[in-house]
Every structure is written in structure tokens, then in C-alpha cells.
Amino acid sequence: xxxxxEIVQGNIVEQRVDAVVNAANESLxxxxxxxxxxxxxxxxxxxxxxxxxxxxxxxxxxxxxxYRLPARHVIHTVGPVWQxxxxxxxxxxxxxYRSVFALAKAHGLKSLAFPAISTGVYGYPLEAATRIALDxxxxxxxxxxxxxxxxxxxxxxxxxxxxxxxxxxx
Length: 170
Known about the structure:
Strand order of the largest sheet: 1-6-5-2-4-3
Radius of gyration: 14 Å
Distance between the termini: 16 Å
Shape: globular
CATH architecture: 3-Layer(aba) Sandwich
Order of helices and strands: EEHHEEHEHEH
Number of domains: 1
Strand content: 15-25%
Number of strands: 6
């Protein structure tokens, strides 16, 4: 089975899926961008649960409840900071997606919404990160629905173009 892949422009905190994916920092205690938006929307109980997890290394993932989000769960993953591509960033980013999909499978979650992991303040080049994200999604065999939620027009255009090039345009 291959997942239905969709690209949308919008706000990840509004997605009605089994789990939204948080582009978190290693502390899991909130931050800016997607991370801050998810923490604000989910409410203080998310922060309390994240405190109990003891952080998360780059490339791994942790799961929490969704609290006030429409999503039942949040899967937090820590993407790599871009350092020119010579410090294992592509493998670390790919490991983020594999870790998220493994947690989703272990918890029976079938629909996921992803942000553009590592492309904000972590500085990962958008097109390179998008290729890794789509390669992981195209290889996924458990999820039924994968939504890539793009905050801006540039990300939306890149995701749509690269998905179309893959031959799997929704």
C-alpha cells in the first residue's frame, strides 16, 4: 500500500489528522516557528508532557498527545541544522522521517501532517530537504494519508513541483 500524498498551503495546527509532526528542538520544550505554533495551539499540557520525555536527539522522534489540537497526537522530531551538507545532514534528516513513520506505525496512526522540517531557522535548503521528505513519504508503506503543510508560497511551489516530477501528483 502506498500513502496518498497531499501538498497544502496553510497552518499545521489546523490539520485534522491522527498526528501532526513537530519540527522540534532537542529540548522538546517549545521554540519558534512550527514548534512554537504547535505548543501555543496545544496548550500548556503539551509542554508538561514534553518535560517528562527528557528531550530528543537529532534524527529521532517522540510522541505525545495532541491536547487542544485537532490532531490526536504530536510526533516531535529534531531535524539537523544545515552546516553546508558535510556533517551528515541528509542522513540525519532522512532518519527524522523514518523515525516519525516508525512511531506512527507502532501507534496505529494512519494520517500524518508534516511541516518542512529543518528549512526554517535550521537553514536546510528547501529543495534538498523537500526531496528527502518526498522520498521518505513515497517509500512509506503504513500510512494512508501524508499531508505536507507549507506555510509559505515558495515551499508550496517546491513541494508541488517535486511531487509532480515523482509522478505521484494528487
